[in-house]
Amino acid sequence: MTEALARGWLLAWIAFGAAPAGSLVLLLVHRITGGRWGEALAPILRPAAALLPLVALGFLGVAAALPALYPWAADPGAVKPDVAALYLNPASFTARGAVALLGWSVLAGLVLAGRCTRLVAGLGLAFYGLTISLVPVDWILSLEPRFTSSAFGAGFALHQLLAALALAAVASPRGLDGKTAPDLANLLLATLLGVLYVGLMSYVVAWYGDLPAKAAYYLRRAASPYPAVIGAAVAAGGLVPFLLLLLGAVRRSPGALRLVGLLVLLGLVLRFVWLVLPAWETGAGGAAIVAGPWLAGLVIAGLLALRLAGRFGRRLRHA
Questions:
Q1: Which of 114, 196, 205, 211 is least buried, going by the fewest C-beta atoms within 10 A?
Q2: Which pLDDT tens digits describe the chain residue by residue (319 residues)?
Q3: How far apart are CA 265 and CA 267, in angstroms?
Q4: CA 218: distance to chain centroid?
Q5: CA 67, CA 3: separation in Å to the nearest integer?
Q6: H, E, C per residue of the chain
Q7: Domains of the chain, each with CATH number or no CATH
């Protein structure tokens, strides 16, 4: 796999996997708390969570192309010797990713099979909280191993939740009406504020710290076209949806929430572009071009997988 193909695959895989993981978390939360919002969104959240095994399968492409993606995989000297020996090495990276994705897939299977008790849901959320503090650092931050951020895992989890809620808004399930649409709007608004807050505070802390590694991280993203990318992500995917969600008419309308969801999804894709592509001084343009077809292919594969799973489930129920 060439560098451009591998890098495009990583970007597309990260963007594609956000909504399925976020859907699983929302289903686990609803299993513990209940509420009409979960019942209304279940027709979208359950099929989305069912795609987690496909996301886990896509991780094989990342693991197979580590030297083309991560500087520490191509040259262990890119990080400190103890870090390379104990943490950032291909075996540990692959093991952490496999455990997280297989665990999420098993939890999704339990939820879809109706075998997820409240205890299992609570333990599942604890497992997710542990793994989400590790794998986003591996998948994204280790592209630039000298940059660290203690809030990155929490911010990435909020991105996944926001992607799942935006997908639910775009799909507008039949249960989403004038009574349940405000619930979805409230969840979107709260999660969107969380994403904006964590992103802004991370930048402010890095700016005040004024450390070379953190400065280099943001200076790479100051080169064209990345200021326009993050500006469009914040405006189209953050500020405009936030202002729309303050309007009562929008909050009560599934059709208006569909527009909000589309804007949020666009903003999330641009955000992932801003996070991933500047890490590579060369090949970023090719990766950006390749990522689009990869993402489209993953979406099509996901839809086909859901269709086959639906047919299989209907045959089982008929039998």
A1: 114
A2: 578 888 899 999 999 999 999 999 999 999 999 989 999 999 999 999 999 999 999 999 999 999 999 999 988 888 888 888 888 999 999 999 999 999 999 999 999 999 999 999 999 999 999 999 999 999 999 999 888 888 999 999 999 999 999 999 998 888 888 888 999 999 999 999 999 999 999 999 888 888 888 888 998 998 888 999 999 999 999 999 999 999 999 999 999 999 999 999 999 999 999 999 999 876 666 776 777 787 777 777 776 776 665 555 455 445 4
A3: 5
A4: 21
A5: 9
A6: CCHHHHHHHHHHHHHHHHHHHHHHHHHHHHHHHCCHHHHHHHHHHHHHHCCHHHHHHHHHHHHHCHHHHCHHHHCHHHCCHHHHHHCCCHHHHHHHHHHHHHHHHHHHHHHHCCCCCHHHHHHHHHHHHHHHCCHHHHHCHHHCCCCCCCCHHHHHHHHHHHHHHHHHHHHCCCCCCCCCHHHHHHHHHHHHHHHHHHHHHHHHHHHHHCCHHHHHHHHHCCCCCHHHHHHHHHHHHHHHHHHHHCCHHHHCCHHHHHHHHHHHHHHHHHHHHHHHHHHCCCCHHHHHHHHHHHHHHHHHHHHHHHHHHHHHHHHHHHC
A7: 3-318 (1.20.1630)
**What is the length of the chain?**
319
The token pair that represents 268 in the structure block: 């999330």
Quick one: tokens of 40? 């209304």
Q: Which two tokens stand for residue 145?
A: 């191993």
Query: Which structure tokens are listed for 250?
Result: 């929008």
